[in-house]
Specification:
The structure is a single chain. This protein is mainly alpha-helical and about 325 residues long. The protein has one domain (about 40-315): ABC transporter involved in vitamin B12 uptake, BtuC (Orthogonal Bundle). It is built from 14 helices and four strands. The strands form two sheets. The chain has a two-stranded antiparallel sheet. A two-stranded antiparallel sheet has the order 2-3.
């Protein structure tokens, strides 16, 4: 897409037209919020917004890779809840134990998904639906159907509550490093090219001799690990393992990926645009909350969901428009 030596903005837009709509919408929303609300661009709002939405960015990154292969992972929300309970029990040992422990717990469920999809040839929708129910039930069993308080005497809560420089939460820094690493994997490594090739045609990819099963196992384990990271952020940021949390989070992840221009049929995806999609969805709720605070118009949680859906529809239409213009210019 990009020349190795020079950056051609026109070529980049033509090659990434499907994802340009989300960047335009994100910039417009940020400018609108900064101009309309007094404390929108304040350090507290930026910090809390990034900290909370780092969880959704994490699960959207894993979902992006799964969808690029033409698959789906419905288990991520339940995995977040399950791992949040697991790391709450590990919190007395500090973040140095709880963080890898939560990620490994998520990766274990991701490996189970990969086994069902690859070895047992179960459709991803059915396989991950089964693990979604299993992870949710497991979270309720090990927690006794109640939230599990973390150990406040260890350094565990610093990960989800402390900021760097008073504005950047540790959680968003870790997720940003993850996003950069996955961007490099997708754009510069053979496993990334294989992931995209599978979405374009799995049979053809096999005929080319590419490691299809290894790439599919990678994306499901990655998705589980990203959900595990989100579970650590959830428990550390809220001070408790939340077995009832995560309901519908898989839909938010899918929406972030699709708004970012990734095709549900696979074969095309963008890590930066997926991050932008997750930020855009969170920004819609953030702006609606500020609007409620003005006291002029009051939107209930139900109306916020309706407005969010309509906004997503407009963004997708904008994507399609920009994509068609880019295709015509390329022709």
């Amino acid at each position: 897409m990009l020349d190795q030596n020079t950056f051609d903005l026109r070529k980049y837009i033509q090659g990434n037209g499907q994802s340009m709509g989300v960047w335009i919408a994100l910039v417009v929303m940020i400018v609108f919020g900064a101009l309309r609300y007094d404390n929108f661009a304040g350090a507290y709002n930026i910090s809390s917004f990034l900290n909370y939405n780092s969880m959704f960015i994490a699960i959207a990154l894993g979902m992006c890779f799964v969808i690029m292969t033409g698959g789906i992972d419905l288990s991520v929300g339940s995995v977040v809840a399950f791992t949040s309970v697991c790391v709450a029990y590990l919190s007395p040992y500090g973040i140095q134990v709880a963080l890898p422990g939560g990620i490994l717990a998520g990766m274990a469920i991701g490996a189970l998904n990969a086994f069902f999809v690859i070895a047992m040839r179960i459709p991803p929708f059915i396989a991950t639906l089964a693990t979604m129910l299993g992870a949710k039930g497991g979270a309720l069993v090990i927690s006794g159907r109640q939230t599990i308080s973390v150990d406040w005497t260890s350094n565990f809560t610093k990960f989800g509550m402390n900021n760097v420089g008073g504005i950047l939460p540790w959680s968003i820094i870790v997720v940003a490093i993850l996003a950069v690493a996955l961007w490099i994997v997708l754009e510069k490594t053979s496993i990334g090219r294989t992931v995209e090739a599978i979405g374009g045609g799995e049979d053809a990819t096999k005929m080319m001799g590419l490691p299809v099963n290894r790439a599919k196992a990678f994306v499901y384990i990655l998705s589980g690990g990203c959900a595990g990271l989100a579970g650590v952020i959830l428990a550390s940021g809220f001070g408790a393992g939340q077995p009832l949390e995560g309901v519908g989070w898989e839909l938010s992840a899918i929406a972030s990926v699709v708004v970012g221009g990734t095709l549900l049929t696979g074969g095309l995806g963008s890590v930066p645009a997926t991050v932008a999609g997750a930020l855009l969805l969170g920004l819609v709720f953030n702006i609606l909350n500020f609007e409620n605070g003005r006291g002029v118009i009051s939107f209930s949680a139900y109306w916020q969901m309706v407005i969010r859906g309509l906004f997503l529809f407009v963004v997708i239409l904008l994507q399609s428009r920009v994509s068609r213009v880019g295709a015509k210019q390329g022709a």
